[in-house]
Fold:
Amino acid sequence: MADDCLFCKIIAGEIPSTKVYEDDTTYAFKDINPKAKVHVLIVPKQHCANAAELANSDPAELAHIVEIAQSIADKEFHGAYRLIFNTGKDAGQSVFHVHAHVLTGETMEE
Ligand code: 5GP
Ligand code: ZN
Structure:
């Protein structure tokens, strides 16, 4: 666990969250400030800063995150979803523990 990482604390249960999915490597929970009807964050339990680092260190985990996103969208909205990895402060990344935003549950603007 990285010092002072919000998502490491959420994964450890030190900060409460609404769980959507969990397995040995991965945790998914509802975003506190949803930008769509269904807005879930999917995070690897292992701390890693961003998607490019994860692709390098554990590409199977990155693929696993995409599979989980698909299964959430299959359940919530006939398989349609938007998958976002904000990478870098100037792109809107505010938590530097890699997370996929899954936006689904409703028809979205382009
Ligand atoms: P980023 O801006 O890094 O791409 O995404 C961080 C996301 O984490 C934001 O969408 C924000 O709403 C969400 N978030 C920040 N703090 C918390 C929290 O304490 N609990 C939950 N569930 N989501 C959080
Ligand atoms: Zn972390």
